[in-house]
Each structure stands twice: as structure tokens, then as C-alpha cells.
Sequence to fold (331 residues):
Amino acid sequence: MTSMSGSRAPEPWLVDAHDALLLDLDGVVYVGPDPVDHAVEVLAEVRRRGVVTAYVTNNAARPPSVVAEHLRSFGLEVADHDVVTSAQAGAREVASRVPAGSRVLCVGGPGVVEAVRARGLEPVTSADEAPVAVLMGYGPDVSWRHLAEASYAVAAGAVFVATNADLSIPTDRGIAPGNGTLVAAVTATTGRSPFMAGKPCAPLIRESVERVGSRRPLVVGDRLDTDIEAGHVSGIDSLLVMTGVTGVADLLAAPVNRRPSYIAADLRGLLRPVSDVRLPGDDRLVTGDRLVALRRACRRAWDAADSGELSPVTAAELEGLTADVSAALRA
Ligand SMILES: [Mg+2]
Fold:
């Protein structure tokens, strides 16, 4: 454990304690079309330090090449191979359950069709073509017809795999139905639930870890119920950044399996000493980090929850902690 004396040896940065980062994209590296502040320079430094970056997304609509091009437009050095999508993980799940060359009914965007083809399977669009499996992912043009074809095939006994279970997705006009909502329609129709490939389930993380050959990966994300829970499911440490959908109140209320190992306002936390970002915070530890009060509040709130008590964090304190996060993001 860290000593309280002022003469402790310099601690390694969080990034240096790992050999690969499994980075979520939306809310972590970009928000919509634009990069998150500081993301580009931090990720360039990560690469300079020899740590591999894999971009791991539940969004199955866009093929990896399109996602990689988006990232390269920010000036990031990214190969298509560095992007791992839930469509790829889903296609791998399908391929492990059906003979090579099998017909697979694809529902979703081009990312789903491309991933199925890349696994040596034959994408089809109608249940009349006798598919032996269905892979369902999000796509903006998915319609009743596609859900009906999927339902016919699933009811006829096809292997049923979904890229991810996200119920909603943010758009520039508000919150819209995600793949989990589309899948729920097929499940309600057929009474069958799919194998899930995306976060928080293990296949997408497994695919990413194997692809980059990592032994000490770190999951980095902005969502507790996908990214952080995926870390728990796969036994991998996780860093929560506050540049996406998670707020202070969500973090303090997180159940055990959605509590991150580390927290930072943004990706600059990767370039901080480990004990500056570790959770839950220790009351005895004195650091210069702006989120030290938030980390201590996590300890109190989580300890209380684990003892079946109400959160000791007051509304006024919550407001102060939220202001700390805003200040840290602006710093
Ligand atoms: Mg995200």
C-alpha cells in the first residue's frame, strides 16, 4: 500500500500499469462527430509509451474501416484492425455455432453484413432463404419487415445472436431506440432470447483482448452498465471517465458489479499516478487530484450501500462534487 510519508517513490502512471487500453468510443474518444477534449493528445502519448489502443464499440452499424477513418480524421494513428465492433464479436459467436459457409439472416447496418461475410458466412435478408442463424444489430434503416424476417427465422429454430442489448442510443434529436429494443420485439414475438455479444457480455471484450494479445488490459468507458460491468464480467480493471453519460449521482449509486476500479474526469487520468485515480478513495490518502473528494464520497456511499444503509452523501455535497467534476473537465 502507499505510504503516507512525503518521500514515497514516484508511482507509475495508470497507463504504464497496463499493456493495452480497450477504449469505448462515444463519450470517451468522441461525442458525435467531434473529439472529446484532450483525447487526441492523451492517446498519442499512450502510443508513444508503447501501450496498445483498441477501440471497442457496441455500435454495430458502422464497419471498422469507417470508424477508423473517423478517428484518423482527428489526427489519431488508427488502423482498421484497431477497431473492434460488437458486429464482429457477434459474427464470431455465430461462426462458432454453425457450419462454415452457412446462411445468416442479417438485421442492421452494413457493419453487420460485413462482419458476417468476414467470418466466411453468407449474409441473407429473408427467412425464406433458410438461414441457420440470425445476427441482429442496430441500423438506422431497420424496419418492421426486418424484425418480421428475424422472427420467422428464430421461430423456425435459427441460432439467435444479437450484437448488444443497449435499450437506447443518443442522437442529436434526443434518445432513440437502441438494438436492445429491436431485439426485445423479436423476443416478445418468438419467446426466444439471443446470445449477446457486446458489452457488458464477455464476447466483445474477449475478441478485443485476443486481437491485441493483451495480458494486462484496462477497460476505459463512460457507461457503468456496459463498459464498467464488462470489466467485472471479464475480470479486467476499468477506468470511468466523466465525459459521457455517467453523472456523479449514478457513480455513487453504482451496485458492486458496476463500480469502476479508477475514475478520472477525462482521459488525462491515464497519465496520473495510480493512487490519484484509484477507487474507492481512501480518507487517509492526500493527493493533489481534483476528484479526491468524489473518490472519498464513493467509499462512504458504497460502504453504506454494502451495509444496507442509505447514502450518507447529502444533496448539497452532491452539488459540490458535480461542480468538482465540471472544474476538472475545464482545467
Ligand atoms: Mg460510451
User: Anything to note?
Assistant: The pocket of magnesium ion is lined by residues 24, 26-28, 221-223, 244 (CB under 6 Å). The first helix runs from residue 39 to 48. DSSP finds twelve helices and 15 strands in the chain.
